[in-house]
């Protein structure tokens, strides 16, 4: 045994330290800043007007029922809570969707769903290509690369107008090869807030079907854009037309279940349904054996009960209304923030350089990502005017 170890290479010798996540460093710097009135616009969680990320009332009620009624913590299996999946299907895809047409598995958050989707595709097509609009959620590219896929970037947003680069997207779809994946944000694009119009969704749905492309839709902010129905309209166009399509879903934001890691993956695979189902379960078994149960059970209880679902919908409406009101307030405050008015969700990309972001942090105690991405939920009606003034002042001073 010792002789073998003597000549065996150290498995950690080739590793190099990795840079800390910039947002984690931002959290630390914000916490250590003693200035009153400091603003944290970096971390991507919903906050109410008081700066809290509360547990939703519907979730509290569902947890109380679960505590009283749950008789076992025994394993459910790699597919997770099938009742949870059954309740999500009509919420996402509409009442008319055929359950037998969609393979579904519960996952640890939307991130787990994305990684499982990437592993599934890589198993069937090693080195396959996925087209990724940029900027995007920074972890997207890492997930797909780690699974062995080839990431092909393209521009998602016109920097000047803040609108989606629809012409660029259509050009990419025409240039892509059959079997390529295309990552699409279902709504509330992270980090730009710039979503596809209904007309562009319809065109995308037609092209992916005609060219044999595989849409992978990341649906992480359902209900935080326009409404539960309107936010799902685009992906429904795709799933109504495409024989092969993938959707990664997260309940972490619209149910505020961040630390419970509650998500799901749905795949339409046509004649390959059984092969997809069994491979998904095999991959999930090796990755996490079975997903965490608590969050999924909570969501299931909420969606099963009409009264409880009504409480949740009202809370979600209030969250969405607060975000959209902040967008209007900021757009009214400065013409350079006008694009925010038509965008949706937690995030927006501001026309700021890293140097200007540094000045906002140094001189105004405003913390945001170096890219200029802000989380609007870090503001309220009282702090938004001061933020808009600081934004305008920095643009004038640093550009002068």
Layout of helices and strands:
Blueprint (H helix, E strand, L loop, with lengths): L1 H6 L14 H11 L6 E2 L16 H13 L12 H12 L9 E6 H16 L4 E6 L3 H9 L3 E6 L10 H10 L5 E5 L12 H14 L2 E6 L8 H14 L3 E6 L11 E7 L4 H15 L6 H11 L1 H28 L5 H4 L4 E3 L4 H11 L1 E2 L5 E3 L7 H17 L1
Parallel strand pairs: 1-10, 3-4, 3-5, 5-6, 6-7
Antiparallel strand pairs: 2-8, 7-8, 9-11
Task: Describe this structure as you would to a colleague.
With 400 residues, this protein is of the alpha/beta class. It folds into two domains: 21-55 and 309-399, Aspartate Aminotransferase, domain 1 (Alpha-Beta Complex), CATH 3.90.1150; 75-304, Type I PLP-dependent aspartate aminotransferase-like (Major domain) (Aspartate Aminotransferase, domain 2), CATH 3.40.640.10. The chain has 15 helices and eleven strands. It has helices spanning 2-7, 22-32, 57-69, 82-93, 109-124, 138-146, 166-175, 198-211, 228-241, 273-287, 294-304, 306-333, 339-342, 354-364, 383-399, and strands at residues 39-40, 103-108, 129-134, 150-155, 181-185, 214-219, 245-250, 262-268, 347-349, 366-367, 373-375. The strands form three sheets. The chain has a seven-stranded mixed sheet, sandwiched between helices. The protein has a two-stranded parallel ribbon with strand order 1-10.
Summarize the structure.
With 400 residues, the protein is α/β, with parallel strands linked by helices. The chain has two domains: 21-55 and 309-399, Aspartate Aminotransferase, domain 1 (Alpha-Beta Complex); 75-304, Aspartate Aminotransferase, domain 2, CATH 3.40.640. The protein contains 15 helices and eleven strands.
